[in-house]
Amino acid sequence: MRITRLETFGNEFLAFVRVTAEDGLTGWGQVSTYNADITAQVFHRQIAPHALGTDATDFADTLALIGEREHKYPGSYLRRAMAGLDTALWDMQGKRLSQPVVALLGGTPGRLRAYASSMKRDITPEDEAARFRALRDTKGFTAFKWRVGRECGRDQDEWPGRTEAVIPTVSRALGDGIDKLVDANSCYSPARAIEVGKRLQDEGIGHFEEPCPYWEYDQTAEVRAALDLDVTGGEQDCEFASWALMIARRSVDVLQPDVMYMGGITRTLEVARMGAAAGLPVTPHAANLSLVTMCTMHLLKALPNAGRYLELSIEGPDYYPWQEGLFLGDPYRVEDGHVTVPDAPGWGVDINPDWLSRATWQETALT
Fold first, then answer.
1. How far is residue 31's CA from residue 40's CA, in Å, rounded to a whole number?
2. pLDDT band with cut points at 50, 70 and 90 for residue 212
């Protein structure tokens, strides 16, 4: 069943992909967020020409072939664009077989524990603690992640003393029986990361994400060797060679691929297999409420080495105005700290037609 038509509907922040097969069946996917208008151009120029006319039901080799045909362009934009094709084809396959993607991957739909993930650094420790307590009490979350340091901050804080304040303030406000995670977003040198990590351990925090520049695998390995908590990372890495190096260097305790940065479900599964062979769990990065989180939900319910929870952003219109109105209904509803992987065919979500009508549309099709 050949692919005959590929469309993108997008803006600067996000672009959905619709794939159509020769029998008229369609599937929906998404390229990665941010500069998605540029990624859509990469999609139509460097992905679509290789995909049109290929088998829509057996596409792993097509994805590999795209990487070979575009071998002069490894890296983020190609993978971000590939994700649109991959995720749309998984959706189509689920619809063709009347199964949710999670079932195609060997798992089952249903409840999945989530951690409430803060994206903010321009928030006081007291305000962060207050909104976490509210989410704990109203939504039943039992795990939370907040930010320390400055993003790629060269050992600098968002403002002086914030890290030293936010660690104990938030941790103590949440109390016992809560899983506590922090993310440094590549802020620290090894010495400073170890210093911060010991503070985290003293406050009962068990997850220290991306403590050093993510491309410095030996630095992160040094931090991991010095601490008892889980050192985690990988969200930015999109090439298998990088994952092999990270694993060989023993840089992290938990792998965190992003489905959209990686190039889709198919390539993320390979990272999960690499992790399983090394005895490492996988807790993917999913930092906004676009399609990336739904794809990650289906994946986590199927991985034999899945981590303990799903990353679920708690940010709304003040932080992510572009994610408003993407879907019909409430696909990310939280009950007792859990989301629900749908049992409907494909991804099990409906993209809002009003959003699509306002998006920039582009098509590449067989003539």
1. 7
2. very high
pLDDT digits (tens, 9 = 90+) for 285-326: 999 999 999 999 999 999 999 999 999 999 999 999 999 999
How far apart are the C-alpha atoms of 283 and 308, rounded to whole Å?
7
Q: Are 243 and 264 in contact (CB under 8 A)?
A: no
> CA 316 to CA 189: how far, in whole Å?
32
Helix (H, G, I), strand (E, B) or coil at 112: strand
Helix axis angle, 265-277 relative to 76-97, nearest 10°?
100
In sequence order, the 6+-apart residues with CB closer than 8 A to the CB of 252 are: 220, 224, 231, 232, 233, 234, 246, 280
Percentage, residues of the chain above pLDDT 90 = 100
- What is the phi/psi pair of residue 238, to 5°? -130, 0
Using the structure block, give the residue that is written with the tokens 């409907």. 344
Is 291 within 8 Å of 347 (Cβ atoms)? Answer: yes
Which residue from 60, 58, 29, 61 is spatially nearest to 43, judged by alpha carbons? 29
This prediction has a pTM of 0.97
Cα-to-chain-centroid distance, residue 178: 22
Cβ partners under 8 Å of residue 348, min gap 6: 100, 109, 294, 331, 341, 342
pLDDT tens sequence across 96-122: 999 999 999 999 999 999 999 999 999
Degrees, nearest 5: CA angle 15-16-22: 135
Cα–Cα distance measured from residue 208 to residue 72, given in angstroms and rounded to the nearest whole number = 35
Cα separation, 45 vs 81, in Å, equals 10
Q: What is the rounded CA–CA span in Å between residue 231 and residue 227?
A: 8
| Spatial distance between the Cα atoms of 251 and 233, rounded to a whole number of angstroms | 8
